[in-house]
Amino acid sequence: MADTHTAAELAAILANHKLWSLSTGMAGSRADLSRANLTGAYLSRADLTGADLTGADLSHADLTGAYLSRADLSRADLTGANLRGADLTGANLTGATTT
């Protein structure tokens, strides 16, 4: 079953993750959005470097310019997601759905 987050919860997760990313893990916490329902989410330019998005539903999400390097997107649903300009360097896309 997919986890659903409110806009405020998602904003807090992203803020903690950005702190984690900038501090190389010394502060904040890594985003765990595994199995999250992020259908149609606006995540343009979001810093999700190294985030756990395993099995997340990102269908029709706006990920333009998002930082997804080293993110785990295995089994994620990226159907219709806008990934224009997104950094997917080293991202795990094993089993991800894109069509």
What is the helix tally?
1
CA-based shape: globular
What is the H level of CATH, i.e. the homologous superfamily of the domain at 34-99?
E3 ubiquitin-protein ligase SopA
Q: Give the helix level as a range of percent.
A: 10-25%
Radius of gyration: 12 Å
CATH class of the domain at 34-99: Mainly Beta
Low-confidence stretches: none
Order of helices and strands: H
Kindly, what is the distance between the CA atoms of the first and last residues, rounded to a whole number of angstroms? 21 Å
Q: What characterizes the major β-sheet? A: none
In terms of structural class, how would the helical and strand content be classed?
A: mainly alpha
The CATH architecture of the domain at 34-99 can be given as 3 Solenoid
Q: Report mean pLDDT, rounded to a whole number.
A: 95
How many runs of DSSP E, i.e. beta strands? 0
Provide a descriptive summary of the structure in words.
By secondary structure, this protein is mostly helical. It has a domain at 34-99: E3 ubiquitin-protein ligase SopA (Pectate Lyase C-like). The protein has one helix and no strands. It has one helix at 7-22. The chain starts with 6 loop residues before the first helix and ends in a 77-residue tail after the last helix. 36% of the residues are buried. The model has no long low-confidence stretch (mean pLDDT 95).
Summarize the structure.
With 99 residues, the protein is an all-alpha fold. 16% of the residues lie in helices and 0% in strands. The protein has one helix spanning 7-22.
List the helices and strands and how they pair.
Blueprint: H1 7-22
